[in-house]
Amino acid sequence: LTVALGQIGNFLAYTAVPTVLVTPLGALGVPFGSILASYLLKEKLNILGKLGCLLSCAGSVDLIIHSPKSESVTTQAELEEKLTNPVFVGYLCVVLLMLLLLIFWIAPAHGPTNIMVYISICSLLGSFTVPSTKGIGLAAQDIFHNNPSSQRALYLCLVLLAVLGCSIIIQFRYINKALECFDSSVFGAIYYVVFTTLVLLASAILFREWSNVGVVDFLGMACGFTTVSIGIVLIQVFKEFNFNIGDLNKPNMKTD
């Protein structure tokens, strides 16, 4: 139930604010989950994990401050125009070609031994998942209006729902495959960075949200995303390290 409510909130966020802000902030679930697990489930959170939580929160604040303040696409007509843009269509063709190569040729041979194969498949599918989610929210605004565009909005919404459903199913399949072969902490950290990067790239090409972002804000968002990514890596990858702040007070024992 809580996961369903969280996804509903995520969907509403994509319809309300730019994608370049929502997607990176999805990482906040990792530090909050780690903190709650340390108190409720008595899981160990070492000093590196606590530092990672702090960095994730600090990077998220930086992202909020420097993110675009307005949407670049607010109506169904603008969405249809963006979807048919030759640059975005060309990008989708490249993504589809890469997915076909990864799924049918590279994954069967190298998937179980190379973590980047499954991560690349799931991340490339984000090029369809997040824009489809945002597009469904825009199209849904016109479905229940009695105007000539409501029928077109319904068809567009159904197409985007089909694309979203297929991409989510394929993502779940390869996420499960990855978790069977690799450590979940390492997979989660790398997956967040690659998935977010490709989603931001797809959103930038489709919605052009970066067009209203200045150099200072761009550098601020890049630093914020880097800070969040480092925090996620510290929480996920180094959580098994037996290291705490008390170790800093131990004398350094040297032998001749």
UniProtKB/TrEMBL annotation:
Keywords for this protein: Membrane, Transmembrane, Transmembrane helix
Recorded GO MF terms: magnesium ion transmembrane transporter activity
Keyword hit for Transmembrane helix: yes
Record-linked Pfam families: Mg_trans_NIPA
Source species, domain of life: Eukaryota
Localization in the cell: Membrane
Keyword Acetylation among UniProt keywords: no
Membrane topology note: Multi-pass membrane protein
Transmembrane residue ranges: 20-41, 88-108, 115-133, 153-174, 186-206, 218-238
GO cellular component: membrane
Family statement: Belongs to the NIPA family.
Name of protein: NIPA1 protein
Organism (species): Galbula dea
Originating gene: Nipa1
